[in-house]
Task: structure prediction
Amino acid sequence: MFSALTDSGYHVEVIAAANSALRRLQRDRYDVIISDIMMPGMDGPAWEREIAALDPALAERIIFITGDVLSPSLEPFVASREDRCLRKPFDMEALRSAVRRILG
Result:
């Protein structure tokens, strides 16, 4: 999936765990975050709140990906961010398009 972005000229870093990503965000700057909406120990709303505490503008540049049937509590969150949420399966052009849209 991320090769579609690197092939388009974007620099991509993959970080597997939310806590590791939060540590990285404290010292490095990123233009866009692409994140699964369900992570071990943290869901999308909690992840977005953590990022907003560090960088409110970056929290608006998270693209969420989901392939799961969402719990009723997460559906309103996803619906309110429909322009920043990709539901699996999606094609790579949809991912590139979402990144371009976020970057303006």
Observations:
- Strands lie at 33-36, 38-39, 42-43, 62-66, 85-87.
- The helical segments are 2-6, 18-27, 44-54, 56-59, 75-79, 92-103.
